[in-house]
User: Fold this.
Amino acid sequence: MAENVKFVEREQLKEKPDPSDLGFGQYFTDYMLSYEYDSEQGWHDLKIVPYGPIEMSPASQGIHYGQSVFEGLKAYKHNGEVVLFRPDQNFKRINDSLERLEMPKIDEDVLLDGLKQLIDKERDWVPEGEGQSLYIRPFVFATEGVLGVRASNTYQLLIILSPSGSYYGGDSLKPTKIYVEDEYVRAVRGGVGYAKVAGNYAASLLAQTNANQLGYDQVLWLDGVERKYVEEVGSMNIFFVENGKLVTPKLNGSILPGITRKSIIALAKELGYEVEERRISIDELVEAHQRGELTEVFGSGTAAVISPVGVLRYNGEDYVINNNETGEITQELYDKYIGIQSGELDDPQGWRVVVPHYE
Ligand code: COI
Assistant:
């Protein structure tokens, strides 16, 4: 159901950043979408407002007890039009995350309509360079200023937009070095691992910093009970190529159900690859590597897209994958995926959504 989106104009538009030096998530556009919730009115007051600081109570529940969820998706420019990639999936998932944290769900169509109107206003901010896009960050947090531990009665949703390049900086297909974390865990079944909640990322930072200090880019998490089965990487799901077959951890409640993950599985099957979603132990991977059967490893995520892994560090050993080069299957999937997202290739699945011109 469409809802009237109010527009609050800013006095002066910002200067746009140098497109050759965008980085990831460093610059923000002129406007953001705002939506508010209170228990009497429900979700209300959908508006496009100038991007800028927000005022909130220092006692806000979102700050103290972490009722805070987010999403990430992208817009691309192709032949003068701006397209979104599978936005319905992100809004479905934000509702799953909201439900898990006892936060109020949002009408997905209202949100999509609001997002389209925001992007329409900001279409000049969508970068067109190779590997660039407008990264879209919807997020919802609790705003009620009271310190009792209970679900907040008030919430705010914001969608902010950031013209961005590759997540890891430089060439997005440069292989990364991954540290297999066997001390800390990210999530356990029955917890919040499958939801995109802010606290999951906070809980990952100590291990990530430790890995960074040892010269690794990200951490590969093992399951929280036996520390034996691989789950996901800091900001990506993970895929392995074993004997020409793609294998990826089966969703089990503690793994984020990535939209890129789901899309890659569909694409790989279409391209004729066998894909297995199942439990994968770290020992199986080490043994496959020793036999020369673990030929490629890559991560998948909205921000990271498809990111080859060149080294896996486990138990004091560096396992080099495919000579630390991007593998053939990884490259094929990357080209196909980016081609569909950006509009260069056909979109038989209907994953692209064109942003209308409202005025
Ligand atoms: C994304 O891929 O959009 C993410 O949310 C991962 C990360 C940047 C937190």
Remarks:
- Residues 72, 201, 235, 301-303 surround 2-OXO-4-methylpentanoic acid (CB under 6 Å).
- The CA atoms of residues 311 and 335 lie 22 Å apart.
- The first strand starts at residue 6 and ends at 7.
